[in-house]
Automatic annotation (TrEMBL):
Residues 309-322 have a biased composition (Acidic residues). Regulator of the tubulin polyglutamylase complex (TPGC) that controls cytoskeletal organization, nuclear shape, and cilium disassembly by balancing microtubule and actin assembly. Regulates the assembly and stability of the TPGC and thereby modulates polyglutamylation of the microtubule, which antagonizes MAP4 binding. This is Centriolar satellite-associated tubulin polyglutamylase complex regulator 1. The lineage of its organism: Eukaryota, Metazoa, Chordata, Craniata, Vertebrata. It comes from Sphaeramia orbicularis. Residues 272-322 are annotated as: Disordered.
Length: 322
C-alpha cells in the first residue's frame, strides 16, 4: 500500500512551498515571526483557502488542493446558481481564471463536454450541472484521460488485451485524438469490455480514481456506453461526490444560510448605488470575502496594520479592505 508514501509526499510538498514563500518574502515574515507565518500557512491549508489566486501547477498538485479549489469555486459563485443564470463555457473559464489566472481552457472544455455530451460546447449550462462535471474532470483528470485513450482504442476495434495504459506523452495528444473520433463515438463501446479494461486500469493506477463500485454500477446499466455518457453518470453519482467530500448533494448545493446572510448585508450596502448589479456585486462580495481569508501573508500584514492603528496611528486604511 503506497498511501503512507503519498501522504508523506504531500506533507513534504506543503513544507517545501511554505519555505519557498518564506524565502520570497523573508523581510516581512522574519519581522512578524517565522512560527506565526507557518501557523498561518498551515491553517490556510487546513481551511482550504490556500489555493486561491495561486498558479495552476500548485492548485492541481495534491488531491487536497484540487478538492479545496472545487470548494472555493462553489463558495465564490454559488449565487450564480441560486439566481438560475445559464453561462457558456467561456464564461465559466473567466470565472475560474479569476480564482486561478492561468487555469487552462482545456480543462473547462472537457468539463463542458461532459455536461453537453460533446454536442456543442458553446451551449449554455446551469451552475450545478457544470460544477459537478468540473469536479469530476478536475479531481480525476489523469484517470479520465487514461479511460479516454482506452475508449478510443476500443472504438478502433483493438482487443482488450492490447489496450495499454497511457503514457504522459499520449495523454498530451488527447485533444486531437478526441476530435477525430467524435463522429464515431455516438454508438459507444460494449460496456462489459470497457468495464474489464477500467478494472484492470484501476489495479495499476497511481493517481486517484472514482470508486470501482460506482463505475461497475454505471457500466452494468446498458450494453453500450459512450465516453461522455459514462462521465456524466459518474458526475451525477452521489457516492463519487461523497468520496471527494467537498460539495453537498445537488438538493443542498445552493443552501447556505450563513453565506446568504453575508450576501444580504452586501446587497444592502450596495443598494444605495444606482448603477450596481445585485447579483454580480454579491458574487464579487463573496469573492472578496474569500480573498480576505486566503493568504497567510495578507492576514499577517492586515493584522499588523490593525495593531498599529489601534495604537493611535492616523494611517488611512486601504479602501479595498474596508
Amino acid at each position: 500500500n503506497d498511501l503512507p508514501q503519498r501522504l508523506i509526499a504531500n506533507v513534504m510538498f506543503y513544507l517545501s512551498d511554505a519555505v519557498t514563500q518564506l524565502l520570497e518574502h523573508k523581510e516581512e515574515y522574519t519581522q512578524f515571526g517565522v512560527i506565526r507565518y507557518l501557523a498561518e500557512y498551515f491553517s490556510s491549508v487546513k481551511n482550504s483557502n490556500h489555493v486561491l489566486f495561486r498558479e495552476f501547477n500548485y492548485v492541481k498538485a495534491t488531491p487536497h488542493n484540487r478538492a479545496s479549489f472545487i470548494r472555493v469555486f462553489w463558495r465564490c459563485y454559488r449565487q450564480i446558481g441560486k439566481s438560475g443564470d445559464l453561462l457558456s463555457m467561456l464564461e465559466y473559464r473567466s470565472l475560474l481564471q479569476l480564482l486561478c489566472p492561468d487555469f487552462p481552457v482545456e480543462m473547462v472544455q472537457s468539463a463542458s463536454r461532459i455536461v453537453l455530451m460533446d454536442d456543442a460546447i458553446d451551449c449554455l449550462m446551469s451552475f450545478s450541472d457544470f460544477l459537478y462535471a468540473f469536479q469530476l474532470q478536475f479531481y480525476y483528470q489523469e484517470f479520465l484521460d487514461s479511460v479516454l485513450l482506452i475508449y478510443q482504442d476500443l472504438l478502433a476495434g483493438k482487443s482488450p488485451n492490447t489496450v495499454i495504459v497511457p503514457t504522459s506523452t499520449s495523454i498530451e495528444q488527447l485533444p486531437s485524438v478526441a476530435a477525430e473520433e467524435t463522429d464515431r463515438e455516438q454508438d459507444g463501446v460494449d460496456t462489459p469490455t470497457l468495464a474489464q479494461c477500467v478494472d484492470a486500469l484501476c489495479d495499476r493506477f497511481k493517481h486517484s480514481f472514482p470508486p470501482r463500485a460506482c463505475m461497475r454500477d454505471i457500466l452494468e446499466q446498458s450494453d453500450k456506453v459512450s465516453y461522455y455518457s459514462f462521465l456524466m453518470s459518474l458526475a451525477k453519482h452521489e457516492t463519487v461526490n461523497q468520496t471527494i467530500g467537498v460539495l453537498p448533494t445537488k438538493a443542498e448545493l445552493l443552501i447556505d444560510p450563513e453565506m446568504d446572510q453575508e450576501l444580504d448585508k452586501l446587497i444592502a450596502q450596495i443598494s444605495v448605488s444606482p448603477g450596481s448589479n445585485s447579483s454580480g456585486s454579491a458574487v464579487g462580495g463573496a469573492l472578496k470575502e474569500v480573498q480576505r481569508k486566503a493568504s497567510p501573508r495578507r492576514n499577517i500584514h492586515h493584522r499588523r496594520r490593525m495593531e498599529v492603528e489601534s495604537d493611535g496611528s492616523t494611517e488611512e486604511t486601504d479602501s479595498s479592505e474596508n
